[in-house]
Design a protein that fits this description.
heterodimer, A: mainly alpha, two-stranded antiparallel sheet, B: elongated, ER-Golgi transport (chain A), ER lumen protein-retaining receptor (chain A), receptor (chain A), ER retention sequence binding (chain A), transmembrane helix (chain A)
Chain lengths: 212, 10
């Protein structure tokens, strides 16, 4: 564990908590892509199957349980409890365009052709693009509430901080996982445009609004 | 190593 990894994890944790609290307290999931949330649930479940096979640490297990739990709580709030506030019309990204290529890629490029390893690899590939329906939704509506922007910023920062963690681990521990690194770069790059808008607008107290 | 069996990250 190093400071970059810990910051990344805390940023990730903050993101999922912000999202659940935002939906719960405003009693609304307007502006949130249910499709991205479904993809994240798939990511967590397929990646954290090792919860039942490998024990790493109490920290590791607790975080995994929280991520899976928060993800399912979000889906329950969006598709059941506050269903009426879910903005279907703007959440029109076709997730099969992300699922099919990531499944195929995981079957082709993995470290070991075992069920757990292929599912882990699939979850890494899928996570790198899982935010696209959400970014697509923001671009369709042309704006995002500031709390949604904070959520996106925390969620995007997490993989960026992991990149620093991987650089550190490469030098300090001679440890690297190429699949995670390349996917992490892709994932972080997808947020760049958003980061720019967040820093230039949201942090200056303005609403995140895309140029017309 | 690149063929590390346990993925210790989240």
């Amino acid at each position: 564990m190093n400071i970059f990894r810990l910051s990344g994890d805390l940023s990730h944790l903050l993101a999922v908590i912000i999202l659940v609290l935002k939906i719960w307290t405003t009693r609304s999931c307007a502006g949130i892509s249910g499709k991205s949330q479904i993809l994240f649930a798939i990511v967590y479940v397929t990646r954290y199957l090792d919860l039942v096979t490998t024990f790493v640490s109490v920290y590791n297990t607790s975080m995994k349980v929280i991520f899976i739990g928060a993800s399912f709580a979000t889906i329950y709030l969006m598709y059941s409890k506050f269903k009426a506030t879910y903005d279907h019309n703007h959440d029109s990204f076709r997730i099969e365009f992300l699922l099919a290529p990531t499944v195929i890629l995981a079957l082709l490029i993995n470290q070991k052709f075992t069920v757990l390893e292929v599912l882990w690899t699939f979850s890494i590939y899928l996570e790198s693009v899982a935010i696209l329906p959400q970014l697509f939704m923001v671009s369709k509506t042309g704006e995002a509430e500031s709390i949604t922007s904070h959520y996106l910023f925390a969620l995007g920062s997490y993989r960026g901080l992991y990149l620093l963690n991987w650089i550190y681990r490469y030098y300090a521990e001679d440890h690297y996982e190429l699949i995670a690194i390349v996917s992490g770069i892709v994932q972080t790059v997808l947020y760049c445009d958003f980061f720019y808008l967040y820093i230039t607008k949201v942090l200056k107290g303005k609403k995140l609004q895309l140029p017309a | 190593s690149i063929f590390n069996d346990s993925h210790d990250e989240l």
